[in-house]
Amino acid sequence: MVESVDTIVVGAGPAGSATAYSLAKAGHEVLLVERGKTPGEKNVSGGVLYGSVLHELIPNFWDEAPLERVITNRNLVFLSGESSFSLDFSSSKLEKPPHNGYSVIRYDFDQWFAKQAEETGALLATGIRVDDLLWENKQIVGIKAGSDEIRAKVVVAADGINSTLVEQAGLRKDLKAKYIALGIKEVIGLPRDVIENRFNLEHNEGTAHTYLGCTKGYPGGGFLYTNQDSLSLGIVLKLPIFKTKSHSKAPEFIDHLKQFPYIRRLIKEGTRLEYSAHLVPEGGYHGLSKLYTDGFLVTGDAAGLTLNIGYALEGMNFAIASGVAAAKTILRAHKQNDFTQSTMKHYQKLMNQSFVLKDMKTFRNAPAIVSSPRLMKSYPDFINNLALDLYQSTASPRPKLINLILKHVVHEISLPHLFIDGIKAVRGL
Amino acid sequence: MTAKIEEKLGTLHYTIDKEAHIKVNFDACNDCENKACIRGCPAQCFELVQDEVKFQYEDCIECGTCKILCDKKAIEWNYPRGTFGVVFRKG
């Protein structure tokens, strides 16, 4: 069976649905192919959906989209054994659309987003794994799925971090372990009112926590965010951790996180609703694949479009922005009736002009800084031990604050390291 | 308290294909010093039984970790065929 459409988008996550929605809205013929039985069932998130780009695409999307909670509280927590030190920020200003963030459950959100594309005119085909690309004179001209071949003028890869299409198109060699992290998550069910009391939230408000010091000294971190009636608790671990021999298996890291008294109290009496894992591109600018070739564009995680700068984490928003840019490129290529690299490279230009690649360039050294081993152990220990000395009364003479700080710096970090890390942080973040 | 992997995976829904979507060339595992798959797989699909790597695809949660970690390029990795594999309802 050979069919043909103008554009095929592979993968109905945020990048794919944004591409398909934008094309359909312009009256363009687009087929959105998803390997799951429904969009979202293969997808796992570890962060917040920022609203700004989606609002441009679907104005006031928050009125209809299945969102969990609007994030009005952020908490960066340094964990060290029995102690925890947190930087807690709340503001109702964070609640105001569109520059706010939401917690989402991807099964619900991705399904909704793909449905928006479908209702706008995109064809959604689920339960189909794309196996190969179709080629003609070095130009990509469609896809193969099982015994079916579907031809298209442009194929958009929105098939996530393990994109088989990007490799087949020759735009990326094997994924490098150093640019990838493994996220492991448990969704923990708790009644809505318990969540709101426990986290000091009012109706529909939510919190997002970041944890440092919870990865046994290995590069990575933990996270927690509130959904309506569940918590998403997870751990992110740089893959090279598992190349070294003497340490625990991946699932044990999340058990370790749950044993910190700080976390134990937050998830108390909760029930494990779901366990999941997913890879995260963490190479930033250095980890990007090539974004285009003849008849082919790469969006979202498939291209490595995410950014972790410690205090902010971008993924879904970048994916949506890249989908919108891909659609614009395709519409332009149609006007010129040229689908070779010479029109596809417009996508690179749009991405270079967008906040996505600008941020990824500005913060190109951030991934190395936020995965510094000292950040995973020395600094959490330092801040917690210092705080312990400040707040404990031992019936012996109190040293002055500066002496205490110096003592702990020397003990837990060392002055040269503090100096180097400080310079790196100022430059890179 | 370390929860058993069975308890964790028990929260998931699977439609299992009769054909494995990941194939391992076990000959290569014999010379592999690191065996990072054993530690890295979040579903513990890889196991060391009497110094030999054993793998079962049924519990796979399709993350791709094993393929990237494998020093020997012994893993022929793919997603399960359409409609098969794991379903996350709370992802």
List the helices and strands and how they pair.
The complex is a heterodimer of chains A (429) and B (91).
Chain A: E1 2-10, H1 14-25, E2 30-33, E3 49-50, H2 52-57, E4 69-80, E5 83-90, E6 101-103, H3 106-120, E7 123-125, E8 132-136, E9 139-145, E10 148-157, H4 164-168, E11 180-189, H5 192-198, E12 205-212, E13 220-226, E14 230-238, H6 250-258, H7 261-267, E15 271-281, E16 292-293, E17 296-298, H8 300-303, E18 307-308, E19 313-314, H9 316-336, H10 341-353, H11 355-362, H12 366-370, H13 373-376, H14 378-391, H15 401-413, H16 415-428
Parallel strand pairs in A: 1-2, 1-10, 2-7, 4-12, 10-17
Antiparallel strand pairs in A: 3-6, 4-5, 4-6, 8-9, 9-10, 11-14, 11-15, 12-13, 13-14, 16-17, 18-19
Helix pairs in contact in A: 1-3, 1-9, 9-10, 14-15, 15-16
Chain B: H1 5-9, E1 13-15, E2 23-24, H2 26-30, H3 36-40, E3 46-49, E4 52-55, H4 65-69, E5 75-76, E6 85-87
Antiparallel strand pairs in B: 1-6, 2-5, 3-4
General description of the model:
In chain A, the strands form 3 sheets. In chain A, strands 3, 4, 5, 6, 11, 12, 13, 14 and 15 form a 9-stranded mixed beta sheet that branches. In chain A, strands 1, 2, 7, 8, 9, 10, 16 and 17 form an 8-stranded mixed beta sheet that branches. A two-stranded antiparallel ribbon of chain A has the order 18-19. Chain A is of the alpha+beta class. Chain A folds into 3 domains: 2-68 and 104-172 and 289-353, FAD/NAD(P)-binding domain, CATH 3.50.50.60; 178-281, D-Amino Acid Oxidase, Chain A, domain 2 (2-Layer Sandwich); 374-428, no CATH class. Chain A contains 16 helices and 19 strands. Chain B is α+β, with helices and mostly antiparallel strands and 91 residues long. Chain B has one domain: Alpha-Beta Plaits (2-Layer Sandwich), CATH 3.30.70.20. In chain B, strand 3 (46-49) and strand 4 (52-55) form a beta hairpin. The longest helix of chain B has 5 residues, at 5-9. The two termini of chain B are 24 Å apart. The model of chain B has no long low-confidence stretch (mean pLDDT 95). At the A-B interface, strand 11, helix 6 and strand 15 of A face helix 1, helix 3, helix 4 and strand 6 of B.
